[in-house]
User: What shape does this take?
Amino acid sequence: MSHTEFITLYPALQAYIADRRKEFDTIPQDRKEELGQVADYIRGRMGKSESARLTFICTHNSRRSHLSQIWAKIAAEIYGLDRVETFSGGTEATAFNPRAVAALQRCGLKIEGDESISNPRYRVFHSDDRPAQQCFSKIYDQPPNPTSDFCAVMTCSQADDSCPIISGCDLRAPIRYADPKAADDTPTEAAAYDERSRQICREMLFMMSLV
Assistant: This one.
């Protein structure tokens, strides 16, 4: 059961999410098991009336980790999981890549930010009734990210390999995604970013549905 009826999503976004929820059967079983580990963590925290904080980590905190942070929060709200908090970070800070921002806008999200600065701070809206998510590139242990009592979700192999220890995390969960950066400045660039966004949205929705 979802709580979508209590959230007034933007119409294009609502249609996009409805399509992704129809795709749960396309998720491989081994992937469902990986997502289930994080769902179990969330369920355990909520069972103790505690917040479940998820920090999505990739190398540059520019693409996959931001997509995961944003879709996970939206998915949590759709399923009425108010105690879920989402964050993202990298092993180094760069900027939220404008190609990833554009992909999210094509999904129906509204995004505001000053792209004239090197590391823009974006406000990401999925509803006029809900606060915007504040997104910018940062190292995984820098504010506002938690430094204890959180689940570290490793979204790329490079970050997973280069961070042998994530201090303070309760659970380290590798949920890796292929980097759409490989298609930058090619004719398939937009398609690559759209496909990665679809996959992450679909999987975050599935993960929250398990809770």
Notes: The mean pLDDT is 93. Residues 4-210 form a domain with the Rossmann fold fold (CATH 3.40.50.2300).
